[in-house]
Structure to design on (540 residues):
């Protein structure tokens, strides 16, 4: 059988060298096509997709209701049966809206969400708050202020306080820029680190690896001639950074540190004691800029962000994509402390005449005193090539949708039931998968179980001994396993080498399949290991 499957001479007419160069997302897409006509005629199980297969429902219904109420309000000021309404008037709006809310699921939620906001973010003008929600949902005005709508910023702050900062109270000292998902947030950040001369060509940026592959491929990292180094976390250290790796960050030559926490693909968060190490790092290297992507934070119990321990040095990215099943909505944020290292560096740079002049030329068309323009506001201006600053910012309906997701969480004082449910779902699948493989699952609280990495070499060793595992490693291209899994069994997994993981690791997403499909996936993996074992025995 394996002779017709000697694919690394021919994959879609290409050879393995080419396949190697493709991103692992593209490779998985190719393997998915093979899986569709797999030799066993199995239903395809694609364990490569990180998109969740659940969505948050009530917050979406509430958003739809805001749109409906907005149209009713617009028709109060002007209405024509040809499908035209007027504008939304804020006078008396709160009372009118509350009197319209009934006992449908959306209305009950909206009432509770509005009351939560009024109480927890101290809304002074209820009418203006409701105006922001419904005029925002309708999308009648350019978002203003462009960086973030007024009440929305306070709601998002509360959300991040609860989900990321935990017991470290940031008060109102966090500035927020909503973006088109976490990925746009990253693009804007790296662009601005260069524009604002926080990073210079030749500066060292350390990346915590393995990491979401597209982040390793951000051209800014190479185009601006940054010196990229990685600290690679290993399975034998429970995927945590070692003390020596933390030492490396204390070197003032290191200007930025970039982490996904909890990570994709290893799915681990920093343990509390590792998190504390960032305090030492900042003490030794006070100009260090830390960029942390916390999209998976809520999937780890007792999670706390690097931002909470090093707020003045950290730029935080959060995304609503995964938890709320909202990848198509494009909802993310950048958050920075109002006193932060980037603004300090901008201020220091303004002492340098050449840099000051550059800044003045760049921003004087949008602000009177460019040297006082904050890093986060520059990011907003630069996201629209400065000239279009006044129409920058995330669309207002997207901002209001985020408000609904955020309020669905902060309305509960303790842990939110929706968050617990999402964790329960991936946890059940995780256990089904590892139990079916016959391997003891990792129960540590830092393990999010949104993804999991299987070390194929290790699995082979555990099942059939070291010699067999070595034989496989020496005789097959590392992509052979995932290829045959797709071709023969219709099971698609993502190879994790491109994420920066050690060869032999494959990533299983626990987000996108039903529980029993994880059993099937594990069974296919075990069957395939046995097939290689037969090849091995014949070779002897
Ligand atoms: C899925 C994912 C995101 C989400 O990105 P969006 O652009 O918000 O959809 C961000 N970071 C990582 C590491 C991810 O895996």
């Amino acid at each position: 059988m394996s002779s017709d499957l000697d694919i690394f001479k021919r994959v879609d007419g290409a050879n393995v060298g080419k396949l190697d160069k493709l991103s692992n997302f593209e490779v998985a897409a190719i393997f998915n096509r093979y899986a569709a006509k797999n030799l066993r005629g199995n239903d395809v199980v694609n364990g490569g997709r990180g998109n969740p297969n659940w969505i948050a429902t009530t917050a979406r219904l509430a958003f739809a209701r805001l749109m409906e109420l907005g149209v009713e309000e617009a028709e109060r000021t002007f209405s024509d049966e040809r499908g035209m309404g007027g504008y939304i008037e804020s006078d008396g709006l709160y009372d009118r809206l509350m009197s319209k809310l009934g006992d449908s699921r959306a209305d009950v939620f909206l009432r509770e969400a509005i009351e939560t906001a009024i109480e927890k973010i101290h809304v002074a003008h209820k009418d203006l708050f409701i105006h922001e929600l419904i005029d925002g949902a309708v999308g009648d005005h350019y978002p203003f202020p462009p960086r973030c709508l007024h009440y929305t910023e306070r709601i998002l702050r509360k959300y991040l306080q609860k989900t990321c900062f935990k017991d470290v109270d940031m008060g109102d000292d966090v500035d927020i820029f909503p973006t088109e998902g976490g990925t746009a947030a990253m693009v804007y950040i790296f662009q601005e680190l260069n524009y604002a001369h926080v990073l210079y060509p030749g500066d060292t940026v350390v990346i915590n690896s393995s990491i979401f592959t597209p982040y390793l491929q951000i051209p800014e990292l190479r185009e601006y001639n940054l010196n990229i180094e990685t600290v690679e976390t290993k399975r034998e250290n429970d995927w945590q950074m070692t003390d020596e790796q933390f030492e490396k960050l204390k070197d003032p030559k290191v200007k930025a540190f970039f982490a996904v926490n909890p990570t994709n693909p290893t799915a681990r968060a920093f343990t509390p004691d590792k998190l504390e190490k960032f305090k030492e790092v900042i003490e030794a290297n006070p100009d260090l800029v830390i960029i942390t992507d916390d999209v998976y934070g809520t999937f780890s119990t007792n999670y706390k962000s690097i931002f909470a321990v090093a707020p003045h040095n950290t730029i935080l990215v959060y995304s609503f994509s995964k938890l709320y099943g909202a990848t198509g909505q494009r909802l993310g944020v950048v958050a920075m402390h109002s006193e932060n290292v980037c603004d300090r560096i901008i201020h220091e740079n303004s002492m340098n005449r050449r840099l000051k002049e550059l800044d003045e030329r760049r921003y004087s068309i949008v602000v009177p005193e460019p040297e006082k323009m904050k890093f986060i506001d520059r990011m907003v201006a630069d996201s629209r090539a400065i000239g279009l600053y006044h129409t920058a910012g995330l669309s207002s309906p997207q901002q209001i949708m985020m408000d609904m997701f955020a309020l669905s969480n902060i309305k509960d004082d303790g842990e939110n039931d929706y968050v617990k449910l999402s964790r329960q779902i991936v946890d059940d699948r995780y256990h089904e998968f590892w139990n079916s493989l016959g391997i003891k699952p990792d129960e540590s609280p830092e393990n999010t179980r949104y993804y999991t990495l299987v070390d194929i070499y290790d699995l082979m060793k555990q099942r059939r001994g070291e010699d067999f595992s070595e034989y496989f490693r020496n005789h097959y291209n590392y992509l052979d396993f995932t290829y045959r899994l797709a071709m023969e069994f219709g099971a698609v997994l993502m190879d994790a080498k491109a994420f920066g993981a050690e060869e032999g690791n494959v990533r299983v997403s626990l987000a996108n399949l039903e529980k029993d499909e994880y059993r099937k996936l594990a069974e296919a993996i075990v069957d395939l290991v046995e097939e290689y074992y037969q090849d091995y025995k014949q070779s002897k």
Notes: The two ends are 18 Å apart (CA to CA). The first helix runs from residue 16 to 21.
